[in-house]
Amino acid sequence: MEPISNKTRAQVLIDALPYIQKYNNKVLVVKYGGNAMTNKELKDAVMTDIVLLSLVGVKVVLVHGGGPEISDMLKRLGIKSYFVDGLRYTDDETIDVVKMVLAGKVNKELVQLLAQHGGDAVGLCGIDGSMLVAERCEGTEGQDLGYVGDIVKVNTKPITDALANGNIPVIATVATDEEGNTYNINADTAAARIAAELGAENLILMTDIAGLLRDKNDPSTLIPFVNVSEVPSMKRQGIISGGMIPKIDCCVEAIRRGVEKTAIIDGRVPHSILIEILSSEGIGTQFT
Questions:
Q1: 200: part of which helix (H) or strand (E)?
Q2: What is the structure's pLDDT at 1?
Q3: Could you give the count of Cα atoms lying within 13 Å of 16 in the half-sphere of its Cβ?
Q4: d(Cα 247, Cα 251) in Å, to the nearest integer?
Q5: Mind listing the pLDDT tens digit for each residue in 29-71?
Q6: Three-class DSSP labels, 78-125
Q7: Which of 68, 119, 128, 150 is within CB 3.0–4.6 Å of 51 for a Cys-Cys bond?
Q8: CB-based burial of residue 34 (10 Å sphere; 0-12 exposed, 13-18 middle, 19+ buried)?
């Protein structure tokens, strides 16, 4: 790779300045998952992006899942995994593993990684300070999903306290109900609700695809901008289908609840968060 000249370095910073000013002291919620969470090089790029944004005055909140790690641990313990409508059926045994893997292993590894990259992170989960209060949710046909929850209330104080202390909150998406039961929460849904309650400037969902494609088999048909009013007709046309439906529903929900804009970006591209935040073109599909 050719070395970058000092003049080019200066120009890059000048070009980024309006975006740094725009996001200064604003909240950015990043839902972290997919390939970017398992590939070491991509993981390092994400941590670098988050630390850099935090140091230039952006209040970054990192919300994470950990599906593959949960599946791996269940397999090692000889507990069978099965899914209903794309959601993991979560019984008593499984919810203990979910709590252990998400709030323990994955969460603390991310906090440690951010620290290695010079970030000041604090690990939280939805149970801390009753941050995420949930109720049991049912499948679309009324099926029992076990301890899978819908968020009914968000208490942002643990998050805003961490941000006020200059920390990067790293949030594992498990929740509790009034009776003290623990629930597994979809990380996209949790990130959207947290972004809305914090009045975030932007919500970014990291995925393993380029964004919303007009033809799902052709990456060159990426749709860069979508107005939320267009979403119902895109569903009818089949442009939004399958696994994209819940993700885009989360984006629409966040916008309707007051988040300025949301984006689905390709986490397989190194530094995709910086490209999205610090450039006019962005990356992926933006919803406004």
A1: none
A2: 62
A3: 16
A4: 7
A5: 999 987 778 888 999 999 999 999 999 999 999 999 888 889 8
A6: CCCCCEECCEECECHHHHHHHHHHHHHHHHHHHHHHHHHCCCCEEEEE
A7: 119
A8: buried
Spell out the alpha helix ranges (H) of 152-287. Answer: 157-164, 187-198, 231-237, 244-256, 272-277
What's the mean pLDDT when you consider all of the chain? 91
Helix (H) or strand (E) holding 238: none
Is the pLDDT score of 85 beyond 80? Answer: no
List, in sequence order, every residue forming a beta bridge with 202; answer none if it has no partner: 28, 261
| Residue 233 buriedness (CB in 10 A; 0-12 / 13-18 / 19+) | exposed
Six token digits for residue 158: 């643990």
Which two structure tokens, joined as six digits, stand for 205?
A: 């969902």
